[in-house]
């Protein structure tokens, strides 16, 4: 492993331990409060927004997704196709969900595949420059790179708790920086995107 990968692994471990230490009832209240950010995110009607089904102690974005749908957004969730690829399938309120592994769920193969215009991105850690540490599999980095290569760069909003911020994320060539981060403290835009 390279020194930056070793450091990322350690920063991931520390940030996830802090997140896991948050009170479950407090996390649930923070997730409900997050829905208030829908007005500030302010997607245009019919904007395709990818969310995610929360796993472990992640911020639950389902209330926010519901609020964004109420503002006219079309929702989708990631679906794992294989060990390297995710696609984003349309998420409809009454559609069945299937196990996607890792304790998460998503629409089955009958759901339409959509290209997100705006992505709510899960993460393990982030820094004040918009760099993120994912969970190590690179699914989101590859999915974002595919969208960029097709001329459809999405707006990237990382979703985390404040306690997941680290001083500096080591950068690797494949890493995709976030445009914004949404935590219980609100929506923060990074200087590089202004």
How does this structure look, described?
By secondary structure, this protein is of the alpha/beta class. It has a single domain (3-36, 48-192), classed as Rossmann fold. The protein is 27% helix and 24% strand. It is built from 5 helices and 11 strands, in the order αααβαβββββββαβββ. The protein has a 7-stranded mixed sheet with strand order 3-2-1-6-9-10-11. A two-stranded antiparallel ribbon has the order 4-5.
Instruction: State the share of residues found in helices, binned by percent.
Output: 25-40%
Given as residue ranges, the uncertain stretches (5+ residues, pLDDT < 50) are none
N-to-C order of helices and strands: HHHEHEEEEEEEHEEE
Shape by Cα distribution: globular
* Total beta strands: 11
Terminal CA distance:
35 Å
Proportion of residues in β-strands: 15-25%
- Looking at the structure, the CATH topology is Rossmann fold
Name of the level-1 CATH class: Alpha Beta
Biggest beta-sheet profile: 7 strands, mixed
Judging by the overall fold, what is the CATH architecture?
A: 3-Layer(aba) Sandwich
GO molecular function: 5-formyltetrahydrofolate cyclo-ligase activity; ATP binding; metal ion binding
Binding site for substrate: 58
Catalytic activity: (6S)-5-formyl-5,6,7,8-tetrahydrofolate + ATP = (6R)-5,10-methenyltetrahydrofolate + ADP + phosphate
EC number: 6.3.3.2
């Amino acid at each position: 492993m390279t020194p930056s990968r070793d450091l990322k692994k350690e920063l991931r471990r520390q940030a996830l331990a802090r997140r896991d230490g948050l009170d479950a009832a407090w996390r649930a209240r923070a997730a409900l409060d997050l829905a208030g950010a829908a007005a500030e995110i302010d997607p245009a009607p019919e904007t395709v927004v990818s969310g995610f089904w929360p796993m472990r102690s992640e911020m639950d974005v389902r209330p926010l997704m519901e609020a964004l749908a109420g503002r006219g957004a079309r929702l989708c969730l990631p679906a794992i196709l294989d060990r390297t690829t995710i696609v984003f399938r349309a998420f409809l309120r009454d559609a069945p969900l299937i196990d996607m592994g890792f304790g998460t769920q998503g629409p089955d193969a009958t759901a339409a595949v959509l290209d997100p215009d705006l992505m709510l991105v899960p993460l393990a850690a982030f820094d004040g420059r918009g760099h993120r540490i994912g969970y190590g599999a690179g699914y989101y980095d590859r999915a974002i790179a595919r969208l960029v290569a097709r001329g459809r760069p999405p707006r990237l909003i990382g979703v985390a708790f404040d306690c997941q911020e680290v001083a500096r994320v080591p950068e690797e060539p494949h890493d995709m920086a976030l445009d914004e981060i949404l935590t219980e403290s609100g929506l923060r835009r990074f200087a590089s995107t202004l």
